[in-house]
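Margin note from the TA: students keep mixing up input and output lines. Inputs are the sequences; the output is the structure of the whole complex. Example:
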Amino acid sequence: MSLHLDGVSKAYGHTSVLRDVSLDVPAGSRIALVGASGSGKTTLLRLIAGFVEPDAGTITLNGRTLAGPHGSVPAHRRGIGYVAQDGALFPHLSVARNVAFGLPRRERTTARVHELLDLASLDRSLADRMPHELSGGQQQRVALARALAQRPSVILLDEPFSALDTGLRAQTRNAVQYVLERSGVTAVLVTHDQAEALSFGHQVGVIADGRLVQAGAPADVFDAPVSPGVAEFLGDMVMVPAVPVTAPLRIVGHPTGTMQVNCALGCVAVRHDHSGGAKEVSAMVRPDQLRLNADAPDGGNATVLAVKPAGSSAEVRLRIGVHTPAGIAYSADTEAGLEVVHKVPLHEAGRYVPGSAIDVAVDGGVVLYPTPVS
Amino acid sequence: MTRQPTVPARERPAPVGFVALVVVLVAGSLVPAGYVVQAAISMGWPALSELVFRAHVGHLLANTALLMVFGIPLALVLGIGAAWLVERTDLPLRRFFAIAFAAPLAIPAFVASYGWASAVPSLQGIVGGVLIAVLSYSPLVYLPALAALRGLDPALEDTARSLGFGPWKVFFRVVLPQLRLAVLGGVVVVALHLLAEFGAFAFIRFDTFTTAIITAYSSTFAGPNAAALGVVLALLCLVVLVIEGMVRGRARYARVGSGAAQQAVRLRLGRARWVALVIAIGCVVLAVVVPLVSVVRWLAQTDPAVFVDLAGAAAETLLLGTLGAFAAVLVGLPIAWLSVRYPSRTVRVLEGGSYVASSLPAIIIALALVTVSLKVVPALYQTVATVVIAYVIIFLPRALVPLRAGIAQIPQGLEEAARSLGVAPWRARLRVTLPLLLPSLAAAVALVALGAANELTATLLLAPTGTRTVATQFWSAASAIDYPGAAPYALLLVVLSIPAVALMFAHATGRRLR
């Protein structure tokens, strides 16, 4: 019992939009598909909804083939709910009539509408309002209630929060997640917002260039991105050239035999090795992993370039020295080195004086990739 | 909240049957154009050149050229100037003038001509022709200029001023260039009207191709003489359209924004304010007051018996106009739907075809329908059906504008949302798209019906014998110099035009029609 995509491809004219996408969404689970604009994620959603037909591959839902080589089920017979980017509420109908739109005539009762408004955490008094009298967040929740009214086995959400203001966005997102959780419906969300994707549900799928490049539990995907591209897409990162250390050293807190690399940030443990045995490798570090020490006894491996207050935190701009086979080459007055911006709490900003040397260490290990050919 | 078009237009190709339907409709509307080509070919060059290269045609060409050379620039200056005064200066009573400058549209040119000619009998020839044309048609430049000015972001003008431009320099270097496309559209309409107008010029005995064709038609029917003149007239229209295409270049539509957030700073005219006021009053007096006073003056002498006939004529006009309007909307709906929902090269060509078809003067459309109905479907000759077909071809653009805008305003996502709620596509259109499209459908019907109610040229030629519309009754009285007898019809024609002009004004000024 699940939504299953197998080798789905789609092209518009000569432009390939989706290539060989396979995906499994277990019943009752939630998946977020994330990708840059133009990556094909919206097309994927529209294929599942039935607004577009795939060129190749099959889509099945609970064992029933929705689209495949032998034709496809039209959108209105799929039993799949769809919430568009702007809600797509019917502007000429009241909230109640919007919510009841797809219900059989005898089910279009006030009681049912109220039940659905309750489910979407909407006040019942909104029932007689027209869509233009609602806030953007309310419109989205009405659209959700309208979709849930069909008791769909899957609900598709196409960037439903992107048109909302920042504050309203987080609030609506939480409300929608809560509703989905309560109704136990299988949900597929499409978004270009990494934070949104990583917090949405059980799975996250990263789409780039029409391919599903990685899918899995959000924590796993964030922890071990399959490529620097995915890593970069999912959040801020620093890539530094690294050299594997042939004779593993013992490092406190790491099991023996852990692979290590030497890089500008010192000798650090490798959390995941995606280098595939490449000769030139680079280590990926999230800025959150960096530990700054301004009082290091022996100077440090980095220099503070500037400190810029930014609200509750301050941005410390650092230049980390360059690794050479002979050791760390570092000079305060050359342009060499790696620039990194690290956030520190504002009250600690005074410790970092521009021009001074500090020590930067990595907490939690790095992910290794082949160095991209530039 | 902004709606982003997430649905790529290329997602689904237009259904073949649907395209075929539109091809048939556009091909049908191109029958008059085909008639012109066929007439030219069948006559052959020797016969055609004999009919074309003579002093009479030279005289008509000279008249047409003079009319264009004086009429178009004057209409441009008047139209843009009026829009600018109303929209960007502190002209007194500008709210009143905003409407008053559009008001001449409610007076059909042939009624204005009647008003002038019966008040100033010496008004004749090119002077009279240019005067009537400029007064009647400058609103066709004024309205798009007004719309474009309203849509312009005042920030552009503010920025130009901050860069050290004076008010005049801002107008000529920043504002005017942006009005170009909108105004060009108005100029083309004016030029086509100048070519097509019959009644207004016939009154003041100013000969143009259209009046000459009607004269030729009434003496020799659809003979070679009328056809030859028709060929020249059609060529002139083609010249107008080609020049438009060249000037317009690659830009397709005037970019008129959804309305400026803040009000543009109005230029303080100082003492010139009163000069401007006098000029504005003068324009309104000449274009509106003189014809209307003249009509009212004759009305006082009208034989009461005429008023009895008025109701019958009004009913017949309403019937013909409504039939034409519904037919035009039925034809326009698939064309508009295709062009908005499935934009492609083919569709643009089809749209261009219907545009060319409707650009032909009514007299040519009428001549073509007379000839085609006589030769191909004699049963249609002088029937209501032929009149309705003529109305559809002539007024299709009037229907297409609100239909296109209406369809474009309905997000495709709404139909998809309905389908995802388990509603079949055709029911989704019925329950969602149709209710949302109703205001546009109503506007389209109203615009065509009201236009058809004023139509004179094609109705004169095509209507079944004994048909008495308001326009034809007006014409038969007025052309027999029965000025008092024509007055009630003239007044009714003006009254019938007011709703259409109100619709156009509301559209130009961006007010929602509800």
